[in-house]
Amino acid sequence: MNRMGKTIKALGKKLNQLKNWLLRLxxxxxxxxxxxxxxxxxxxxxxTPLPVVRLFDQAxxxxxxxxxxxxxxxxxxxxxxxxxxxxxxxPKFFKHYGFDFEQIYESxxxxxxKGKKLRGASTISQQTAKxxxxxxxxxxxxxxxxxxxxxxxxxxxxxxxILEVYLNIIEMGKGVYGAxxxxxxxxxxxxIKLTANExxxxxxxxxxxxxWTASKPSRYITKKQTLIARYMYRIGPLPWKxxxxxxxxxxxxx
Length: 254
Hints:
By secondary structure, this protein is mainly alpha-helical. It contains twelve helices and three strands; from the N terminus they run ααβααααααββαααα. A hairpin with a 2-residue loop joins strand 2 (171-173) and strand 3 (176-177). The N and C termini lie far apart (94 Å).
């Protein structure tokens, strides 16, 4: 009996040690991620987990090894790629605080009606959070962590910064990351020089940019491209464009 009591006591001690270790690990993860979220508010994001995973896959797969990534300020990316992205991915980007609950509800309802596996209705903020720190591997733990990062960047970054980071880190082709690299790879020009149709073609491939090609669109991608190009200007000018216009029009004081 004493022997069993000692075993249970030792096991309890080990479990407490494990709990304390996990709590310390969780606290450390929180502190490290918060540190990077704060500094990424200012400095460019030069590396994220996804390109590393893709390079590893390319090295041991059939695809050629490729890594094209060029960081540009959002002003240098041009309005067309930004408007096309907002139109396709998150039309309510400037109205929500990281989560579009109405879209999430609609997505769940439609998938349940059709008997399909639940799929998310991720906002640009959520996709930025996902691409910033996480690999493509899905889990409930990662989903909870994504929610935390989404809330953090919504609180600590501006909407302009969130969109800027998204447009610079999102996968836009096999080994191609960011709008500038995509524009150069697909159309041999800078992102700021993309036409509305070219920007819409790049964005139309977003759900699976390794399957679809903007420069050689399929019938499906061409249809999406046409819709995006048709509606992208309905979002109106980007907020910082309005601010610049108002500043220029403001009369000088005597």
